[in-house]
Amino acid sequence: MPGAGQQALTVREAAGEEARIDAFVSAHPDATPFHLTAWTHAVARGCGQRGRFLIAERDGAIVGYLPLTEVRSPLFGQALVSAGFAVGGGLIGEGVEPLAAAARAIGYPSVELRGGALPADWAIDDATYLGFVRPIAADDEGELLAIPRKQRAEVRKALANDLEVVTGGLALADEHYRIYAESVRNLGTPVFPRALFRAVLETMDADVLTVRHEGRAVASVLSLYFNGTVYPYWGGGTEAARGLRANDRMYFALMAHARARGCTQFDFGRSKAGTGPAAFKKNWGFVGTPLRYAKWSSGPAREVNPLNPKYALMVRTWKKLPLPVATLIGPWISRGLG
Fold first, then answer.
1. Which parts of the sequence belong to the N-acetyltransferase domain (predicted)?
2. Which residue of 116, 139, 151, 172 has the lowest C-beta tally within 10 Å?
3. What is residue 64's predicted lDDT score, i.e. its pLDDT?
4. Other C-beta atoms within 10 Å of 58: how many?
5. Considering only 8-22, 34-48, 184-198, which range has the smallest mean pLDDT?
6. Which of 161, 168, 56, 173 has its CA nearest to residue 117?
7. What is the C-alpha end-to-end distance of the chain, expressed in Å?
């Protein structure tokens, strides 16, 4: 119950109030870059999926917030996702239950929340994904010492290789996309639309770090920056990257680059528990923390986890596709994953 003289909390959909919402997000300790309105707009622009913003207000001030993306796919069904195409997002602030109720009332068969405050009586998944975050060391030597011995040796070998590191924005976008598209094809998953990457680079605090060998890019990562944390979000390497240890060079260079930008935390993103990517991050000295996601559905919930056995044949087939074919048709599929 509101206190004496305090108005009751109200929930509504906001339009044209990006500055107010972003001010609330930037000041909230649980917020991520995926809560920023620019992320939702970049997804809409790059993937053609509409964004919506629900806010909870009291006494004229925003006290709670839920960004949503309307994800529509002929292959995977429909859902409201918070945040769309992100590993985080979800409800922040007050008004968890009324915001969740307002999301359900929009009329989609399923609502998915990736992190944040979770409403009661929704299906909770805290076993599928792990998040990996740790502080950035004060200098390169401290960073090396923070890496367990075996991986530290690999990083030192990478540092000894003839590799060039460059950073930039849109000028590196096409090079990054080529590498990322090859990387995800090799993993058996479709690449996201090129327009999504460009929209993020154009509208958010983001950049690209690329590792080159003999003038040719072999590894590249697009990272987001928010409230002192760097988020290496879309990264990958070519077949040649493994032998050159270019991925090791890339992430170590990103730690130094982020430190120079004033960052104090390195968010290595999420990985599925028990997978190779999760083990890779643990080898770097990151401790996996279970991520808590929630889902509400009025019927059978959609399933987009590529580890689901029903997608096994699709994944094996995708790995064998010629890269130009995978790059051409991948965005049509991936824009419906959300």
1. 9-154
2. 139
3. 98
4. 16
5. 184-198
6. 56
7. 36
Take residue 323 and report the two structure tokens written for it: 């890269």
Beta-carbon contacts of 284 under 8 Å, excluding residues fewer than 6 positions away, are 147, 148, 151, 251, 268
Give the DSSP per-residue string, 129-153.
EEEEEEEPPSSHHHHHHHS-HHHHH
- Closest by CA position to 68, among listed 48, 87, 89, 47: 89
Helix (H, G, I), strand (E, B) or coil at 144: helix
DSSP 309: G
Give yes or no for a contact between 289 and 87, defined as CB atoms under 8 angstroms apart: no
What are phi and psi for residue 276, nearest 5 degrees? -60, -45
Contact call for residues 32 and 44 (beta carbons, < 8 A): no
Entry field: residues in the chain: 338
Please report, for residues 73, 83, 116, 276, the alpha-carbon distance to residue 148 in angstroms, rounded to integers and kept in the order given: 43, 33, 31, 17
SS3 at position 104:
helix
Q: What is the mean pLDDT of the segment spanning 97-120?
A: 96
Q: Is the pLDDT reported for residue 3 higher than 60?
A: no
Residue type at position 144? L
Eight-class DSSP state of 118: -
Tell me if 293 sits within 8 A of 130, measured CB to CB: no
The pLDDT-based confidence of 310 (bands split at 50, 70, 90) is low
Mean pLDDT for 45-65 is 96
Strand partners, 135: 265
Compute the Cα dihedral for 129, 134, 136, 137 and give only its sign. negative
The answer to whether residue 54 scores a pLDDT higher than 80 is: yes
Nearest to 56 by CA among 5, 21, 89: 21
Q: Assess contact for 233 and 223: CB atoms under 8 A.
A: yes
Rounded-to-integer distance, Cα 327 and Cα 135, Å: 35
DSSP SS3 for 75: coil
Percent of the chain with pLDDT over 90: 81
Domains of the chain (ranges; CATH) run 10-126+292-302 (3.40.630.30), 130-290 (3.40.630.30)
Enter the tokens of residue 229: 């944390």
